[in-house]
Amino acid sequence: MKTRSAKESTISALRFRRVVRALRTTWRTAMGRKSAATSMIVTVELEGGRRGVGEVPTSFAVPHETPDAIGEVLATARKMLISTDIGDYQAILHRLRRAYPTFHMTRSGLEVALFRANLAYRGEGELAFWSAREKTLETDITIPFLTDRDELLAWLNHVSRVGFRAYKVKVSGRCEADLSLVGTVHEFLRRRCPQFTIRLDGNQGFTQRGCLMLLNRLARNGVAVELMEQPLPKDQYKALKHLAKSSPVPVILDETVFTAEQCRRVADDDLGHGVNIKIAKSGIAESAAILRIARSAGLKLMIGCMTETMIGLSAGIRLAAGTAAFDYVDLDAAHLMFGPARQQGITVSGPRYLLKDGP
Fold first, then answer.
1. How far apart are the C-alpha atoms of 237 and 265, rounded to whole Å?
2. Within 10 Å of residue 129's Cβ, how many Cβ atoms?
3. Contacting residues for 351 by C-beta, under 8 A, at least 6 apart
4. Which of 326, 325, 316, 328 is nearest to 353 (CA)?
5. What is the dihedral of CA 291, 296, 297, 300, to 10 degrees?
6. Is 235 helix (H, G, I), strand (E, B) or coil?
7. Which residues contact residue 98 at a Cβ distance below 8 angstroms, ignoring those fewer than 6 apart?
8. CA 277 from chain center: how many Å?
9. What is d(CA 100, CA 64) in angstroms, rounded to the nearest whole number?
10. Coil, helix or strand at residue 265
11. pLDDT tens-digit readout, 123-174
12. Strands 346-349, 352-355: pairing kind
């Protein structure tokens, strides 16, 4: 590797810009609805010209991280980081955690940019960093909580033609409406797809009783469900523990787990059967720590995303393919929005991502 001067590793610029992408269908969950996805794209540049790019999406689950609030944090972080050496990567992350403890997604997007700038300086490929175990990754696709039947069928027609085999349906916590939605999806897929799997995502919209009622009624109706993601509010630990004991399907926790410490609590207190790791909410280092704890505890592993462009999504794709550690892959954001679905080193082929090592 070419010898580089210390000056080349100095952070010289931190830039960010807002990106808005129209969604291909209405994004509706138990927490809200939207027709476009808004993100901040973050670029960290070094004196030697190398750079790294990350993304901070917005989410109903983290309402205080608005585009304006994200921009304010990034503007103050810029003052902290300019003239810092990228070789002090771990110390930089520690400083960011202390300075912005509640801005998980903003820190995560900035961390991805720093991580990529550091890899670029060291001359390493991102996929190789994660061991490069797999070069093909297949994702599920999200079916939002669509109450308009024509809109629902139009989306099902579109995604079934793409060739997806796993469908994650957003449910609301309103039993009759959810039964109707999941029943419609099941009947459509039964007629159209030779093989399919249905997953459910409650987005914190259920009570313990309501979740069990829905799962039991679906089973009686002959609708097989592979898992239920985050049915209860994230901090209802006692109810989560009881649900995990009685649920007929695995309960995978998303909003309950942003940090390794929270994952440890899930494992120690038996709050669920698995966790959903998202680089967008936890960053690189914390996601790796959550992964280690979850594997050690025998928890099931899902890798997920927010409504991100390929800039942010690609980090999760490379983590999943590089580690080959995940039972469930939910990295479908590239299929949810209009605009380019490409990133250097990654090609989209139906529901699969084809990978090669690269920046």
1. 9
2. 18
3. 138, 139, 140, 141, 162, 163, 164, 165, 335
4. 316
5. 50
6. coil
7. none
8. 7
9. 12
10. helix
11. 887 777 777 678 899 999 999 999 999 999 999 999 999 999 999 999 999 9
12. antiparallel
Model confidence pLDDT, tens digit, residues 233-292: 999 999 999 999 999 999 999 999 999 999 999 999 999 999 999 999 999 999 999 999
In the 8-state DSSP scheme, what is residue 255? T
Q: Is 344 exposed, middle or buried (0-12, 13-18, 19+ CB in 10 A)?
A: exposed
Distance CA 284, CA 356 (A): 20
Q: How far is CA 267 from CA 201, 206, 258, 271, in A?
A: 20, 22, 14, 7
**Domains of the chain, CATH where assigned:** 6-124 (3.30.390.10), 127-355 (3.20.20.120)
Question: To which residue do tokens 């796993």 refer?
Answer: 166
Contact (Cβ atoms closer than 8 angstroms) between residue 107 and residue 97: yes
What are 109's two structure tokens? 């997007």
Q: How far is CA 131 from CA 13, 115, 118, 128, 147, in A?
A: 30, 16, 17, 5, 43
Please tell me the pTM assigned to this model: 0.94
Q: Which residue, chain included where needed, has tokens 């049915």?
A: 231
**Of the candidates 59, 61, 12, 60, the residue with the CA atom closest to the CA atom of residue 40:** 59
Contact between 155 and 146 under an 8 Å Cβ cutoff? The reply is yes
